[in-house]
Each structure stands twice: as C-alpha cells, then as structure tokens.
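On clarity, I found the account of how folds are encoded harder to follow than it need be. For illustration, here is how one protein appears when written out as sequence plus structure tokens.
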Amino acid sequence: MAMLVLLGAMQEEIARIRQGMTLRDVVEDGDSRLFVGLYKGYDVALCQTGMGWRKAEEAARMALDRFPASSVVSFGIAGGLTESVAVGDVVLCSPLHAEDAASERSEGAPLFHSDDRMVSLTGCGLEAARLKWAQAASVSALAVVCRPDEKRRLGQACSAAVVDMESYWIARVAADRGAPFLAVRAVSDGVDDALPPLQRLVKLDGSLRRRAAAWYFVRHPHDLVRLLRLYRNASRATRNLAVAMDCVITRLATAA
C-alpha cells in the first residue's frame, strides 16, 4: 500500500509528528530510523535521516525501497539567504539547487522542483493556519553555512532564498522513483545572523557534541549569545514547521 513518506534530518524536526503517531513498526537501518504508523488516521512513514547529502540520500533510498510512496516530503529548518524570508517563515522550496562546489556530486547537477499540486494543496493549508509562507528557491549545501557573507554569496549564486543540507538529494531519489515530491522548510536564522561553527559542534543526527562544544565555548564565550539566539529562533521555526507539516499530512492524505 502506498503511503506518505516524510523525511527530516534531526530529532527535533520530526519529534512532534512522531509524538502524534500510533506506531506499527520502527525500522533502524544504519543511522536512519523509520517510524511507520498512523498520524491522525493517515498512513505515514516518518524517517529521521541525519544531516547532509549522504545521510539524506541513503535514508531516502532505504525508505522508498521498503514502502511505495504516494508522495515524498523533505522537511526541516533552514537558513535564510536573503531579506525576503525571516525567522519563522515557512518556505515551500521550488526550484531546488545543489551547491555549486568542487564536487562530482554537485557539478552540473540538474534542477528539481516540488510538485505543483502538492505546493497548491499545502499552500491552502498554510493560509488556513495563518502561517507566513512563500514558494521560493532553495539550495542544499555541502556544509553548514554560518557566516552572513557566505549566506549572501550562496543566495546570489543560486538565486535561492533558503539553504538546507538534504532536500535536493531527497528530491533526486524521489525523481528516480517517479514519486511526487515536496520540500518544506521553516527559517531558523536570517541572512544576517552569524552562527557558531555548527559543523564542529553538532553530530550528523543534530545532537550536540558536548565535549567539543564545552571546550569551544570556554575559548569563545561571546558565541554563547549566538547559540542562545539560534536556539530561540530554531524553537520558533520548529513550532511553525510542526503546524506546517500537520497541514501537509492532512491536505495530501485527504486529496490522495
């Protein structure tokens, strides 16, 4: 039976959907965890992928090998690359770019798009929920983009409004399988927000490297302010993401 396949990188991103599910099964495959069951009576497969292109691609293939998908949704928080998006805004990503870097995985990479019907149905739900949202281009980067100058440069290079690390690669797997795809992101940091070096401080599942973080902030105590601001903004983005994903699931499942 085809079902809605949902993929988020971090535990915080998937937590509210997971808490609302009646589980039938939990599948662990490497670092990926797949929760299968009902959300408000609708069949869903919810996957925690871990951060980055490799984790996202592996988890998407694993999930779609196990379950035929009626639709595939990549979701999570994202960084803003222009003033057109603010913290808490929801972005339905289309088109989707891969970062133009010295990598055989991204060089000459084609564009992908979210499915027009899925965007339209979700947009109606977001309007009803009174969330601020937009359809805009995204780029999936190869590493966390922390500095404002890096954000602006990447946004200009790709004409993109937000940056994540997974959606493009999940879109590619969905396209390979012929499954309708949607990327949903909530903005956790604006274009002018400087972040601590999260690539060194956060594991691929999104959890903090406690020892590395403690040592870093002892040496850079001023960055604690940035971390606390990011935590506050990420909490707001995660709340809005949960509302948005409730709209996604109910709208797409009822229209199937």
Q: What stands out?
A: The helical segments are 11-19, 53-66, 116-128, 148-158, 167-177, 198-201, 210-219, 223-255. The domain at 77-255 is CATH 3.40.50.1580 (Rossmann fold). The CA atoms of residues 34 and 167 lie 17 Å apart. Confidence is low (pLDDT under 50) at residues 101-106.
